[in-house]
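Standup, Tuesday
Yesterday: got the pipeline producing structure tokens again.
Today: sanity-check two examples.
Blockers: none.

Example 1:
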Amino acid sequence: MLTVFHTADWHLGQSFFGFDRDYEHQQFLEWLLKTLDQHRPDALIISGDVFDTVNPSALAQRRYYDFLATVSTSLPAMQIVITAGNHDSAARLESPSSLLESLNIRVVGTVSRNENDEIDIHKFLVPIVSPTGITQAIVLAIPFLRPSDVPLLLEAEDPYLDGVKELYRRTTDAAVVMAERIGEQVGGQIPIIAMGHCHVMGGIESRDSERRIVIGGSEAVSPGMFPAEIAYVALGHLHKAQQFRQNRIRYCGSPLPLSFAESGYQHSLCRVCFEGCRVSTVEEIPVPRTIPLLSVPAKGAVPVDGLVDELATLTLENDLPPERYPFLELRILDQGPDPSRRVRIEDAVENLPVRLASIKLETMARSASFDEEMLASGLADLHSINPEEILTNAFREKYQADPDQALLQAFREIVMQQETAEA
């Protein structure tokens, strides 16, 4: 029986409303090392967004490489396959691949082309090989795909989505040929496992934490895009664990909550077992939460007086080091101008062992809320801002009409070019 651990969206180096999260990431990686040692899977696959930015800090990179060095020493028989996500710098992630391959680690960040400008499909094919030299599975290590990464289909209705589908089809066809050849040698069928970093249509997003990966209408791929020959699709990007097509297509979810909207559910990774060429079981393994995320009130919003009263009733540990203080979000019902509001909030939290991350003002007239200036840094969470929505709202305000599709498409291309340049 083949066993694979599926994880994604570590977002190492993430700054949570201006606060460092290195302690949480360190605790997660230590827990993951112990969990891998306990279960001893044949492979670990990480489906993108290893880092939170294209230029991760030196500390974030050290955590990543220390983990890889430790796990390759303690579990030399376990193979590791890593792909880049939309937050990662594809070239940076892939750059040490020659060195990492000597540690039984394969990293695929970029899409390569030959001298004829044809995509190198075989770069994505990663055999999972046992210590005795028997190939147990074939992984399609496909990273986050930008429009320039996919096959050019001139007659396609949607060149990007159809290009993504065509790339998975071509890669799967090559994997099937390889799997059939290996199956004849070993006397049995082996599974094909696909990796991906994308938004599958119908997937549940986490408010305020997931950056839209393709601007505009071409952001969600159909679950039917993945060929039937694939036994399991190991996805990254959406932070909530979820599945499609009877467990065959899975988001494992992120190991840490990346916004207050993610505080209400259990984060996890997946342990996937295969019998022959098919999935036999999928187990969600809960990831322990190191730092609580507190929202006051837990639901809705209250005036400042009620908020101060609720803060006074919080049960908190007073002997924690600062890096273990809970993150706090305050939800205030706006009842009009109140010059003393900020001072009263500061006084209420001044001596509490918490990190005040977010203050949200909500009005009775609308259900949507927005971040007030944060006491820690004075900056809003820019990851929650959608550039196309900003353009649309500004256009409506100026011209009292929606922008036409030609303008939107031109804007999407500019945004995508900028994101590609940053990566």
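Example 2:
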Amino acid sequence: MIRVFISIVFSVLFVGLSGNSFAQKRDYLLYTDDNIERLKAQIKDDDIVEKAWQDQLEKADKVLQSSRQNAADCQVLALAYRMTGKDVYAKKIRDILLSSIDTETWESQGLLNRSPSWTGGLKTSHTSFFLSLGFDAAYGYLSKEDKMKIAEGIVRLGIKPQMANWLSPETSFHTFDTMGHNWWSACVYMAGLSAIAVRNEIPEAQTWISEIAGTAAEWIGYSGSVLQNKIPTFDQDGGFYESINYAAYGVSQYLLFRYAMENAMSSMEQEDFPILEKFVDFFIQTTYYVKDDAPMSVNFGDTDIHRNGNSCVVLLYNLGYQDERYAWYLDKVNVGSDMEGLELNSPIGLILHPDLPDLDPGFRPDLATSHLYEEMDWATMRSSWDDNASLLAVKSGFSWNHAHADAGSFILFHQGKNLIIDSGNSSYGNPLYTEYYCQSEAHNVILFDGEGQDRKDPYFGTVNHGDLHHLIEGEKYKYLLADASGPYAQLLRRNYRSFLWVGDVILVIDDLLAHQPGKFEWLLHYNGTSKRNGQYLSIKEGEAEVLVQALYPETFPDGGLPHDFPEQMRLEERMGYKDHEPEKQLPYWSISHHEESIRTKFINAILLKEGSKELPILEKFEGKDFLGIRITQNGEVTEVYFNLLADGRMKHRNSVISMNGWETDAYLTALTFEAGVDRTKPENVKQFFIGHGSYLRREGQVMAHSLSKFYGEISHEGTAYIDGQAGAKISLGKSSFGKFLLNGQKASSMEKDENGLFTFRLPIK
């Protein structure tokens, strides 16, 4: 009798313990034992983390007190339960789970009404993710019957609809070509994460997990489609063309699945993808770092100026992809806007908050300050990695879906502000999203007779994409060529935009040729206030300011009224719409010339003001078949020559020219001297830049020579930064270098010939 009584007592105790988190060992998806232990240690040592935890606990308590909950509440309840062990949080998770599976679908009616019906879209993905986290975290609290009922509900409403739409040979209708961007990863990999959550209850889950994991190589490696005008999803250097927003979203969804697999199913080997580390550098390169304020990002396409890659980098850091520059980046972006909820002040961001090393205050990433994403045609160029530096970002690539009709556009950050801007976007249901935000006029591009790219490009995609080429990051010059001719082919034969950055001056050089005469316009969108004062157009926000100076074909009037100087450049105010606030209008500028023409050259300078520092002085000069600009700044003089014969007007004849005694065939030439020296002497040239040229000579003295044209900066100090034909031989006129560095590396093949020329070859890529 006593034995029976004891047996009954132990049975009751055992059943009671089944509602306790200590009853069963669980390999959790995100809220793992190790992560809980780490967070508790951080709370003791870090006031910021301690406050973030108290904020989350307060939110969890508010959920308990609220009369209404939703699936997303499982995130904060899961954190509170795993951190405190208090069953009140697990009970609320249970209530949400049981309520959520008592329905016919998790999908929105709009997608269900499509033909075929989209039963496994983003609403299903998000709901499945939230509930799976709750199920996983409260697993030890739930009864066996609860677990089976909830697991079957997650399969019925979450996993199976997504697999049916996206993966099943019998029923799938999505492909990488149509939905292989961010939706693919959100729907497929959240189905995978949910399958991991229910692996103990559902025997088929193991097969689903393996199948879903096996899609990653194809998703990452999607190569594009000619017939449907699609480019590869990912650039070879880790970029994602649809915007920072969708890069962070799409990649993070896969990484959440990968991380859950590593935690809960560590015996399953996962394929390694070298591009994962490149994702981090993409976010580092496209973020603008602001002193004592939230960072901003390169906001081409459908994104937000404060979106960043925090979610992806946090996950990669937890997955073991760790480097000091990743830690530096996370320290910069770990607060702020992150729609994936992985910033520090979010439940998942808090539980995944890594222990970061203490870096020296002077630490900077060991990355070049400029980068070209050659396959998606984005580029960034910055003055340094310091906070509040200057950052120029350029896009001239593909337009479709979240990527706008903005070939050749650029934005500029300076002294902590985004001064020259992208117009951004609005909610997708607002008519202005399609009519304005996606169109060329919302960007800093060229218009011809009021038109830009085909207005249907964002829907159908550009058949002839734009391109970026020949990024040069030298010690004196930065250069980039944007080719927007393809997207403008119905209007223009040539639409080339060169950026030449010298000191505190950025020259924007547009080489334009139309099919017939018309009016060319140069658009400029800005933040803050803007007004013209003589030949300068000021753009100012707070203490940050840049000046725009029109140089060719004419300058702004230096005084008087515009109608008194019809031959000068015209400045017209237009009205657009504010980023994410379409109900508010925002002015922008159109710069144009009074004459209609079939061919023109716009040269505009952007002067980067630095407090009370003396402004650069720009002077125009020109001669037969060339345009010139002289820049005086910081004790130096730089002369820039634009060879008009090199603009494609001649066939089978090289663009040979003598410009103030400098003989070349180069499209662009720049020479920098110390102020006050004789600028006719080749030996007085400190550095020079050749843009698409094969030689530079003066009075028989060779400064550079090649059999094919190249782009690059060359210094008499023994350095060169060159982009040209692989294996090309280049000769320089000075041969007494102590050492010679080509693109930051020792040149592999060097020689001195009988003429005293120093010769090297460009590497074979």
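Quick observation on example 2: The CA atoms of residues 91 and 174 lie 38 Å apart. DSSP finds 19 helices and 33 strands in the chain.
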